[in-house]
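Tutorial handout. Part one gives the primary structure; part two gives the three-dimensional structure as tokens.
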Amino acid sequence: MTRKLEDASIPYEQRIEAVKAIQAETEKSLRATLGPKVFGNYAESSGKWLRQLGAN
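Part two.
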């Protein structure tokens, strides 16, 4: 996946959308695995990386 994100032949906007899709899917999976309450706690305390993933 990293190669796709660095591939200059893919438009920048398309690469950003791919990262946002990865962020959304990761959040969805974590929420389903941890449950909404634990996920909320995780997102507040250790989830900075997840928020930053789609921040570009």
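Part three, for discussion. The chain has a mean pLDDT of 88. Residues 2-53 form one domain.
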